[in-house]
Every structure is written in structure tokens, then in C-alpha cells.
Amino acid sequence: MNSYEQQAKKRFGQHFLHDRGVIERMLRALNLSSKDRVVEIGPGPGALTFPLLERLPQLDVVEIDRDVIAWWQQQAQAQGKLTIHALDALKLDVQSLRGNSEPLRIVGNLPYNISTPLLFHLLEQGSHIRDMLFMLQKEVVDRITAAPDSNNYGRLSVMIQYFCETSYLMKVGPGAFNPPPKVDSAVVYLKPWTHLPYPAKSLATFSQLVAQAFAQRRKTLRNTLKGLVSAEQMESLDIDPTRRAETLAVKDFVNLANLIS
After folding, report:
1. Is the peptide bond before 51 cis (omega within 30 degrees of 0)?
2. How buried is residue 19: exposed, middle or buried, by Cβ count under 10 Å (0-12/13-18/19+)?
3. Residue 173, class by beta-carbon neighbours within 10 Å (0-12 exposed, 13-18 middle, 19+ buried)?
4. What pTM did the predictor assign?
5. C-beta neighbour count of 242 within 10 angstroms
6. Residues 92-131: pLDDT tens digits?
7. Which end of the chain lies in a sparser environment, N or C, as judged by fewer CB atoms within 10 Å?
């Protein structure tokens, strides 16, 4: 294995993971079986990729950086085992990649600049995904996993928890990466619901309602949802119109959206 010599590229938001302890903990959390169909987003110089190749008969990776792709094409351990999909992860078609296999397990140290849109892109295709393990900016993981009535709870918490179970696995300091980012990172585990606990009749209505409710966090629901839901409609669902958005659980937002759908 010859090491990757290129500098990390700012435009791709690259921060290459190198801490063995962090990688081992991520692998333990995955608890892989040789039958698993795993997709890694952004393999970079292979800190996670090489251990995955040791544990799996084959691995799919999604990579946009041509230098990284060219480097992987020369790695002996990857020959016959690694399939490289040279594309922007935001254009990944999970269903066609899955084909007739078991639902996919998706892992990666995600570029911070596309992490939130990428999560939504994947969760909209959640029926083809078994689970996901991602390294993200800690602040984003705090928001994804937040419970109602906490400072970090907001639109992102509600929308992601609508689609899946979320677990905060560990905090990771800047020193685990090259170059070190200016912020802390964290690892999150996401498991799409097999059956949505609270299905929205219209995802567009639900999404609009959640966005509007959190647009002005300090205001009451009576004010933020004016024109969308009346105080009487809220009261019919036992939701006090003087409450704020961050006090509502996912179920409450779905019930409100279904009432007006």
C-alpha cells in the first residue's frame, strides 16, 4: 500500500481521518458481516476503506475527486474487490446501486459542506438503506440527535427523526484528521424506520409546517403558524397555541400537518 501524497482539497471539504482508535470504534459499531452490502462515501486515502476491504468480499465507494480515484485504481488490495462510482454523492441513486441485493449499509466521513443536503437525499431513498454511520460536524450531530425542549432541537432534529432512529456514538477532536478542521466532529448512527411511526399524508406539507414553525424560534406557535394552522385546530389536537416549536415532538408536527393536508 503506497500512501496518498496529494493535499486535501478545500473545494471538496476534505479532512482525511487517520486516528486508528476512532476507526476501530466505528468498525465495532458497524459490526459487519461478510454478507453486508456496504457503500462508503468519500474513501479519501482509505483510513476506513482498507479495514472495510479486509472484512468484506466487496465494497462500493462513491468519490468525486479524480486524483483520489486514480490513486485507488492503482491499489493492489482494491483489485477485484472495490467498485468506484465516480460521481457527486448528491446524485447517488441508491435504488439502482442496490439492485437486487439486501438494503445498503452506508458509511463515511462526510464533507461538512454537503452533509445536510446529502442526509436528506439519502433519507428520501431510505427504503433501500439498512443503516448509516457517518462522521459529521459535532454541531450537526448534536442537532440531529436532540430531544424536544432542548437548545439543539430544531428543524433538522424533527426532519431527520421523522425518517429514522438516531444515535450519538462519539465525539471526535480535530487531531483525528489531516488537515485538522477548526471544529469538533462526532459520529452518528442512523437507522431508517422500516415502518414510519408517524406517517405524514403529505411530506411537502409536513416539511413546510416544520420549517415555518422554527423560522422564528422565540415566537409562539400561534404566531409562527398563522395562516397555516389556526389556534382552534391546534387545540383540537391538545396542543397549546402559546407553546414554542421546540416543545413539540415529531408526532405533534405530523398530527398538525395531517390535519391540514
Report:
1. no
2. middle
3. middle
4. 0.91
5. 11
6. 999 999 999 999 999 998 888 889 999 999 999 999 999 9
7. N
